[in-house]
Write a structure and sequence with these properties.
The structure holds 2 protein chains of 2 kinds. By secondary structure, chain A is mainly beta. Chain A has 3 domains: 1-34 and 216-231 and 256-302, Immunoglobulin-like, CATH 2.60.40.1080; 38-199, Jelly Rolls (Sandwich); 312-464, Galactose-binding lectin (Jelly Rolls), CATH 2.60.120. Helices cover 6% and strands 41% of the residues of chain A. Chain A has 2 helices and 33 strands. In chain A, the strands form 6 sheets. An 8-stranded antiparallel beta sheet of chain A has the order 2-5-10-7-8-16-15-12, with no helix packed on it. In chain A, strand 29 and strand 30 form a beta hairpin. Chain A is globular. The model of chain A is unreliable at 1-29 (pLDDT under 50). Chain B has one helix spanning 8-25; strands at residues 6-7, 39-44, 58-60, 78-80, 87-90, 93-103, 106-110, 112-114, 120-121, 124-131, 138-146, 160-165, 173-179, 189-194, 205-212, 215-220, 223-228, 244-252, 268-279. In chain B, strands 1, 2, 4, 5, 6, 7, 10, 15, 16, 17 and 19 form an 11-stranded mixed beta sheet that branches. The model of chain B is unreliable at 1-33 (pLDDT under 50). Chains A and B meet through loops of A and loops of B.
Chain lengths: 465, 280
């Protein structure tokens, strides 16, 4: 079981965008005139752009705007193709290539097709980061993406299946790509695309929609908050027999909540926690039940940790929204191979909370530079354990000091047990510092010891004073 | 591939042409005739829900051990059962379902039916309309096996006519084959048929043979894609002297197809709409 918090920060933007979309789109749907007027041309680029208008290429922010061109010396069974020159990572004009192809004017009716296909090759074997359609920089409602597509040096046909073409009766975002140099050591390369078009392939397998990776995670959410569900995906069996996973916008799916009075689906993939209780979210796509679900436990209003009131001048903060934090390398080092602890940090109303899940041990590291707490006497930590407090709780905090050569020269260990905590309530852990060397503090380690069954907890307001 | 296919309706003319050529050139068989199989003798449409017609079909169970060929001679992984989980008739279709489950020492279950001693015949047109499963390791087959004279003769001497076999990882390709003495197993005489704009797992197709004296014609839907005659086989032609019976099964894994992998989804179902046999 994987616990998942909702990303609250992105939500507001998204929900505004989506609600605008609904108003305009649903009206269009009821007037059938739209269907008749949209072009159903499938071709996008066959040796030259096809019916895209004059202003159709929109690079992503930070990408090299001149990466795309028409190559009149290369083509699939022809002499012309689209050429994308992925820049070196240190190119001052942009360190990657990426853009959308948006048809000018009215969208196209793609409902008669089931795939976007093209022929492609590259100057060297490389995985192209992302390719797809459905991005128009307006609603991006039907974003569809395939990732890490392997390009060789000879022309090969590629297929991006459409999750549910019946939604695409008015689509302007016909193609998009994003390619960088992460796996080529920062050095650029070229790839070519030709015969880019929507097709109706009889050789494409049936869609297999999945939400939450086909798993059934349990998630906790707080009353009154809203959230965004995971990006679903659809697996298609290609004519070759290989499976192609397509990442699809939630808008392709019809979502449902088993208890709409507890969790309401506000729009495709956007949910609102209305009352305490548990609801199971499932979805269908094009009438096919998606595998996977998410069970949301609405656990009442979120209680914030007590707001610190100490004078900032007396505080060296590691993690807090009240004080300025010192430079911290990480709040979770994902230490391999033995650490199981994952991070599911979240923020509510601007208050950031560290949330550790699947806990065995985890560390906060701040060694660049280390901190000198010679003038400070205590470590302060707020901690909350959601749900039941494990009776065998044995929670170890280690405070570690380093000498000028980076060698550990002091470690203080403090244990806490179940009597230090109350369910769903913030505890304040006050730790008097007993270290003799405390001018080079760089690491806090939290550990589950002696078989404690603690799995999930929140931290806030980690500071020395 | 596609250019090699001949439409069934054009086929008679071509056979006659070939025949004339044969007669005049090498004089192999002056009595050869091409039969028109238009007398429907078996019309199994699976129209009764729940029950397989036991007057026509035997349900073969096990992993081949009882037959002396564990893994059915091909290192297959399935255990065939007669349970409705693996074999059922619903809404006019026969459903053969392969499942991933521990069962009598095997990791998969499936089903296999045949007509031995219930319907055996020599020559005719055999066809079935089917939709096949998908995924690495799925091996659906529609085939004919020669009578073994109460166990006194053995494969491959008894002959085998594979009307349709498919590898689940190749959703646009099927093959048809014959096995006999000197041309069996990996040395069978066979040919593939490729769909250019369709698939075996999303669409129903008719898979069939026309089997007469000294020839077996293979077709998919209305496309004839191969003919096998005594001249094509690298051993004795064993298809003129005995009766054959029908087998339909869904194997899992084995030498022909390879074993399922992590991407193979279970359960997988093979749907058979009908099985028809026409004779003269």
């Amino acid at each position: 079981m994987k616990n998942k918090k909702f990303n609250f920060t992105k939500l507001i933007l998204l929900s505004v965008a989506i609600s605008t979309a609904v108003v305009s789109c649903e009206r269009d749907l009821s007037e059938d005139a739209v269907f008749a007027t949209n072009s159903n041309t499938g071709e996008i680029f066959t040796d030259a752009p096809v019916e895209l208008g004059s202003d159709f290429y929109f690079p992503f922010l930070g990408s090299k705007p001149t990466a795309w061109s028409i190559d009149n010396n290369e083509g699939y069974e022809s002499s012309a193709s689209m050429r994308i020159d992925v820049p070196n990572a240190n190119d001052p004009e942009g360190n990657y290539a990426g853009a959308i192809f948006r048809v000018e004017g009215q969208g196209r009716d793609l409902s008669g097709y089931n795939a976007l296909t093209f022929w492609g090759k590259a100057s060297q074997g490389v995985n192209i980061g992302e390719l797809g359609f459905g991005l128009d920089f307006i609603e991006d409602k039907y974003q569809t993406t395939i990732s890490n597509t392997s390009f060789g040096t000879s022309w090969t046909k590629y297929i991006i299946p459409i999750p549910d073409a019946s939604k695409l009766f008015d689509e302007r975002g016909l193609f998009w790509y994003s390619a960088g140099t992460q796996e080529t050591g920062g050095f650029g390369y070229t790839f070519w695309i030709d015969d880019l078009k929507f097709e109706n392939l009889g050789t494409l397998g049936n869609p297999r929609p999945e939400i939450y990776n086909g798993e059934d995670p349990i998630s906790q959410a707080f009353l009154g908050n809203s959230g965004v569900l995971d990006t679903p995906r659809v697996v298609f069996n290609l004519p070759s027999g290989m499976n192609q996973t397509v990442s699809a916008s939630p808008s392709y799916f019809d979502w449902s909540s088993s208890e709409p009075t507890i969790v309401e689906i506000r729009d495709s993939g956007t949910i609102q926690m209305l009352s305490s209780g548990t609801s199971v979210i499932t979805a269908t796509m094009a009438g096919v039940q998606a595998t996977g679900s998410v069970t949301i436990e609405v656990v009442g209003e979120f209680v914030f940790a007590p707001t610190p009131t100490r004078d900032p001048a007396d505080v060296i903060s590691i993690f807090s929204d009240v004080y300025d934090d010192v430079p911290v390398e990480f709040y979770n080092g994902y230490w391999q191979p033995f650490q199981t602890t994952l991070s599911d940090d979240f923020a509510i109303n601007g208050d950031n909370i560290l949330n550790y899940t699947n806990f065995n041990f985890v560390g906060n590291q701040f060694r660049e530079p280390t901190i000198d707490i010679t003038e400070n006497s205590n470590l302060h930590i707020n901690m909350l354990i959601p749900g039941e407090i494990p009776p065998n709780l044995d929670f170890l905090i280690s405070i570690i000091n380093f000498d000028g050569d980076g060698v550990e020269n002091g470690r203080q260990q403090v244990f806490f047990n179940s009597s230090d905590f109350e369910a769903d309530t913030w505890s304040t852990l006050e730790i008097p510092i007993t270290l003799s060397n405390k001018d080079g503090l760089g690491l806090l380690i939290y550990e589950n010891v002696n078989g404690s069954t603690l799995s999930n907890f929140y931290l806030d307001n980690i500071y020395f004073y | 591939m596609k250019n090699n296919n001949i439409r069934i309706k054009d086929f008679k003319a071509i056979i006659i042409f070939v025949h004339v050529l044969l007669m005049s050139s090498c004089n192999t068989d002056e009595t050869q005739t091409v039969a028109t199989f238009d007398n429907l003798v078996i019309n199994e449409e699976f129209s009764t829900d729940g029950n397989l017609d036991s007057s026509l079909w035997n349900i073969e169970t096990g992993d081949g051990t009882a037959q002396g060929i564990p893994g059915w001679g091909n290192n297959e992984l399935e255990y065939y059962t007669d349970r409705t989980e693996n074999l059922s008739v619903e809404n006019g279709y026969l459903l053969i379902t392969a499942r991933q489950e521990s069962f009598n020492g095997s990791s998969y279950t499936s089903a296999r039916i045949q007509t031995k001693n219930k319907f055996q015949t020599q020559f005719g047109r055999f066809e079935a309309r089917m939709r096949l499963p998908n995924g690495q390791g799925m091996w659906p087959a529609f085939w004919l096996l020669g009578d073994d004279n109460n166990g006194t003769e053995i494969w491959p001497n008894i002959g085998e006519i594979d009307i349709m076999e498919n590898r689940g990882q190749q959703p646009t390709t099927i093959s048809g084959a014959v096995h006999g003495p000197g041309y069996s197993g990996g040395n069978s005489i066979n040919k593939e048929f490729n769909f250019s704009d369709s698939r075996v797992d999303t669409d129903f197709h008719v898979y069939g043979v026309e089997w007469g004296e000294n020839y077996i014609n293979y077709y998919v839907d209305d496309v004839l894609y191969n003919q096998i005659t005594p001249e094509d086989v690298t051993g004795e032609w064993v298809f003129n002297d005995r009766s054959f019976y029908i087998i339909i099964n869904l194997a899992v894994g084995g030498d022909f197809v390879g074993n399922p992998n992590s991407e193979t989804l279970f359960p997988q179902t093979m749907l058979i709409d009908y099985v028809k046999v026409y004779q003269q």
